[in-house]
Amino acid sequence: MPFGFVTSEGSADMQDTARSAGALFVIVKPFTPDTFRDALSAVLV
């Protein structure tokens, strides 16, 4: 099942961990609706 990762921890290590676990995108809080939409658009195209 495809998934994205939304986190308050934005370190490079956390992002690498999420991606290595299969996350299609990583969004760091705080985020805007535009940030979320852009991340989804990038992986759904």
Explain this structure to me?
The chain is of the alpha+beta class and 45 residues long. The chain has one domain (5-44). It has helices spanning 12-20, 33-44, and strands at residues 5-7, 26-28. A two-stranded parallel sheet has the order 1-2. The two termini are 17 Å apart.
State the helicity in percent bands: 40-55%
Q: Helices and strands, in N-to-C order?
A: EHEH
Main β sheet profile? 2 strands, parallel
Sum up the overall morphology in one term.
flat
Number of discrete helical segments:
2
* Biggest sheet: strand arrangement: 1-2
Whole-angstrom Rg: 10 Å
Number of strands: 2
Note the beta-strand portion.
5-15%
Which key phrases capture this entry?
flat, two-stranded parallel sheet, Response regulatory domain-containing protein, CheY-like_superfamily, Sig_transdc_resp-reg_receiver, alpha+beta
Task: Show the helix and strand layout.
Blueprint: E1 5-7, H1 12-20, E2 26-28, H2 33-44
Parallel strand pairs: 1-2
Provide a quick synopsis of the model:
The protein is 47% helix and 13% strand.
